[in-house]
Amino acid sequence: MTIVSEDAPAVIKSYYRVVTGGVEDYDDGRELVPLLADDLDFEGPIAGHVTGAALFRQGVKGFIANVSKIDLIQEVHGPDGTAVLYDAHMPKGIVRFTEFFKFADGKIQRLRLQYDPADYIAKGGG
Prior knowledge:
This protein has 4 helices and 6 strands; from the N terminus they run H-H-E-E-H-E-E-E-E-H. The protein has 126 residues and is an alpha+beta fold. The longest helix has 14 residues, at 53-66. 25% of the residues are buried.
């Protein structure tokens, strides 16, 4: 099950299916491999700027381990990008996230993640 609508591009639906699937099913993120460009360009408040799908897959495991539920607030889709706003239920409360995706050839090429890092850590992220 995915949190985004049926209007979302297939790669985005698959991404959220993996991210919301629980850490028990995540393993080393191999389900993300076909969804991410090898040279994925990622930027987030804690990780900073990271290039490479392998590094991203390692980092996302901590997020998945700490999030029990995601509530979609809004999504916007264009021909080569998507923006998603959601609340993530963490061990000590809810943290609001926004993800901006750019994709091509059925893969996520760039991901910009926005959230309050102090709030994320205070509510059980790390």
